[in-house]
Write the structure tokens for this entry.
Amino acid sequence: MAERSDWQDLRARRMAEPGAEEAYEAAHLAFELGAAVREMRERRGLTQAQLANAADMTQPAVARFEAGGTVPTIPVLERLAHALGAKLVVQIAQDTTAA
């Protein structure tokens, strides 16, 4: 039980650092985008190499993106969407959880 308490304390200290919450949100967004692209790629029966070729990227770049390791630019997202036969939709929506 002490280990759990230590981890919770460490996490709380890290999240209290300046910029930590923003970094966490960026990492979460990168993960969600990567998962969406991976799911779409797999549904279409494409390999990472095939998607990379169609999007004018390298296979390692696609792998990093799908793993949530990078936050892509809008042009990269557009290339991936086009290569997947999809449409990129970017929107800003009202945050209903904000107080």
The chain has a mean pLDDT of 90. The domain at 27-83 is CATH 1.10.260.40 (434 Repressor (Amino-terminal Domain)).
